[in-house]
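ARCHIVE ENTRY
Sequence with per-residue C-alpha cells
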Amino acid sequence: MKLATMALLGALISSTGTAAIPTAAQRLAQRAATITIARDQWGIAHIRGRTDADAIFGMAYAQAEDDFNRVETNYLTSLGRLAEAEGDAAIWKDLRQRLWIDEADLKVKYSASPTWLRQLMQGWADGLNFYLASHPAVRPRVLTRFEPWMALSFSEGSIGGDIEYVDLDALRALYDRAAPHVASAKPWSEPQGSNGIAIGPSRSTSGNPLLLINPHTSFFFRDVVQVTSGEGLNVYGAVTWGQFFVYQGFNARAGWMHTTSGLDNRDEYAETFAKLPNGKLGYRFGGDLRPVAVKPVTIRIRAADGGYSNRAFSVMKTMHGPIIRSGNGKFIAFAILDDPAHALEQSFKRTKAGNLDEFMRASALRANSSNNTLFADSSGNIAYLHPQFVPLRDDRFDYRGVVSGGDPRTLWRGLTASEGLPNIVNPKSGFVFNSNDAPWSAAGTGSLDPAKFPRYMDQYGANARTDHALRLLDGAGKFTTRSLNAAAYDRDNPGFDRILPGLIATYDGLRADHPRRASLAEPIAMLRAWDRRWSADSAALTLGVHWGEAIWDEVMGKDRPSNAYEIAYARIIAASPERKLAALEQALAALRGLYGTWQLPWGEINRFQRNDGAITQTFDDKKPSLAVPFPSARWGSLAAFEATTYPGTAKRYGTKGNSFIAVVEFTSQGPRAFAVTAGGVNGDPNSPHFLDQAQDYAAGRLNPIPFTDAEVARAAVETYRPGEARRTR
C-alpha cells in the first residue's frame, strides 16, 4: 500500500521529470516526510525532526491524533471564538477573552517576533493543517485552518490563565443591560493546584538530584510527549493540548515543575468616570481627565439550526486595562500581564535550558505571571523560583482588593528584579518544595522572612499540604526515586489532625445524659480510632470527608478569600460545639440518604470513570469505574482526587487532581524517570490508550520512561511519519 506522504511527495515531480513548484499541500507532505513519530506501549508519542520547527510540526500532528477536539477547543477558547461552536452559552467567555485578544494585534506581534519563533509557530500551524488534510473524516467544529499567529493567543500553559480571574457574571452585568446587576455567588471550588519537590545531592541516596512533578489539573487537560530535534531540543513531559512547548517536564540535563502561585500580580483599579469637554467619556487620573478608549468587539454566535448571528459590544479601557465590572458607583479596570510573544518565547526557551543559569536567562524575559517553579539539573542545582512578572508597587496599598485608579501612587512602576524575588537556590536543607502555598517555608520552616518582601508576594498563605510536605522533607533522611514516589502518595491527611480533635473533644464534653451521647457514639468511636490515613477500604475516611465538607461549608458560607485554607481551618477549630456536632449529624444523614448506611469504605464511592471523549464528562453509576484510594488535597493529601456526586449519581466521581505524575533522577548518563497520567493519552474511547494507565494511576504506580534513542527504539510499538497509515490507535 502506497503511503500517504509518499503519494503527496510524488506529486512534486512533473510528468517531464522536472521539479514542479510545490503547492501548499505538497510543501506540508514534503516536510512531514522528514519527521518520525514512535509510539510506545502507552501510546505516548516520541517525535523527532531535523529542526526545532520540524519537531514542533510532528508534536502538533501527534497531539491532534491523540485528541483534536481538545486542541481545537483550547484555541476556540483562547481566540474568543467558542460561541461559534457552542452558541449563546459561550458569549461571555468569548467577550472576556476578547478584552485582551485581538486578531489584528496578534498578527502584528507575530510579524515582530524573532525569525526562529515565527518558524516554530509556522511548524505548529503546518502540523495541525497537515493533520486535517490527511484525516478528511475529522470535522472541526470551527477551525478548518490554523494560522501561525494563533499560537500567540495561548502562550501560557497553566490550568487557568490570568484572564480567567474576570468574573463572567459581573462582566455580563456590565455589558448586557438585560443581565442581573449583581454577580452570583460562586460555589466552593476544590483546589486546582500542584505539588513540586526538588531534592539536592546531599539528600539523595545516589548523590543525584531528584525532581517530583505532580500537577493537579482537570483530568485529560494535557497530553504527554517527547520532542527531539537536530537543533538540540530533547524534552519529555506534559503539554497542554495544542501548545508547542512542554509545560512540566525535563530534558537530558534539567527539569522543572510549575505550581500555581499565590503571588498577587493582577490588580483591580476603581475608575471615576466623567464627561470630557468634547462630551466623550473620560476618567480621572491625578489632576487629569483622560479619555476612555472604546473598542468595538463582535462575537459570532452559532444558532441551534446551524446558522450564525453576530452580537456587537463596545468595550471600555483605561490606562490600567479593560473595564471588567462596576461596583459602588465605580468602574473597575483589570491589569494583568499582556505580553504573549515574550510569554511564548520564555515557555519554549526553558524547555532547552540545560542548567540553572540557562533557565534563569530564559526567565529574564519576565513573562511568567502565574507559576512558581521547582527546578533541578544534572549539575546538582535545585531551586524554588517565584514568578518573574511582579509589578513594582507602593506597598502602602493593599493590592489584594480594589485600589484607586485615580491615585498615581497606585500605578505600576516597572517590574521587580530577580534579586527582589523570594527565590531559593541550593539551600542547606537539601530540598525545595511548593504546594500552592507561600514560599516562606519552601526549603524548610523559616526559609524566608516574609517581612523582607512586599505583602503582594503571596496571598495564599499555608495549607494542609504545607504541613504534610514539611513532615516528609524536614530532617536528614535521604531519597531515592522510589521513596520520592512513595512521598508523593503518602497516605497522611494532616488537615484532619488539626480539626478532628476538636470534634472529638466536643463530644467528650457532652453531659452523660445528652441524647447525642448515644446517637453519635459509634461515629465518634470510628473517628477516634482512625489513624487519619487514606485507603480504599477506610470507612472512617468516608465519614471524615463528609463531616469535613459539611463543617467547611458551614463556616465559610459565601466567603472566597485568597487564603481560604488558612481561614477555613481556623474557623473550623474555633466553631461552636453545636456547629461541629450538627455538621456530623448532617454528614451522617447525607451518607444514609445516598447509600443507606454511614459505614461505607471510601473506595466504594470515590471513583474514576471515563466514558467518552467529551471534555465535560457525564457520569453513570451503572457503568464501570475504578476505586481511587486518595481524597481531596483539601485535607492535606499530596496525592489529590477532587470528586463529588453528580445529578443521577450516588457515587463520587473525580474530575481533577493528580494528572501527570513523574519522578526524575538526573544522572551523568542522562535522566532516569518514571511517570503515569490520569486514564490515558488518547481521547478516543476505541483507542487502547483511552484508559490503559488508569489502574497504575489509582495505585500510584509510575512506569519507566524511555528517553534515550536506544530506549525509545526498544519501547516503540510502531514508528511512522505524519500522514502515513497507522497500525495502532
In short: DSSP finds 21 helices and 29 strands in the chain.
